[in-house]
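REVIEWER CHECKLIST
Item 1: Sequence provided? yes
Item 2: Single chain? yes
Item 3: Sequence as submitted:
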Amino acid sequence: MKHGWGAFIGVGLIVGCANVWAETGKAVIKGTTEGSHVSGSATLKDTPQGLKVVVNVAGVPPGTHGLHIHEKGDCGDQGKAAGGHFNPAGVPHGFLPKDGSTKAHAGDMGNIEVNPKGSGKATVVLPGVSLKGMGGMPSVDGRAIILHEKADDFGQPTGNAGSRIGCGVIMITEK
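Item 4: Structure as written out by the authors:
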């Protein structure tokens, strides 16, 4: 059986595309104040639909808490060193999965619900965002995930979610 270059190119494209989605990232979330019991982690994975982020937290006051990716990977000064929300397009604040990239910051992940025992889990896919910035998409590698004291009410300019009670720097863990 004779195979032309098309067969080799096709196999190369399939293998190459499989590797594009192999990168994963992680952020270890810690409390931003002395004596805080806040802890948790975020796992991040590039998918064809966008960046999938899974956040698990513990030691958090029960209720609804805002969750955002911030522009700098620095958790100092009670999380304030992380800067503002990651917003490379300079658009209004919103909920990226619902509002899209023209009406929400690239780092707008919405809220996480924390149960009476202090733990919570949130899963969100951020369309048009990437761990490493592939295909010209904004990259979150080296930025920070911030857990806020209050719920994100999606108001302008940043959702009125209050102080930063948890922070973790995003790092690529697997290539």
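Item 5: Key structural point noted by reviewer: Residues 50 and 127 are 4 Å apart (CA to CA).
Item 6: Recommendation: ____
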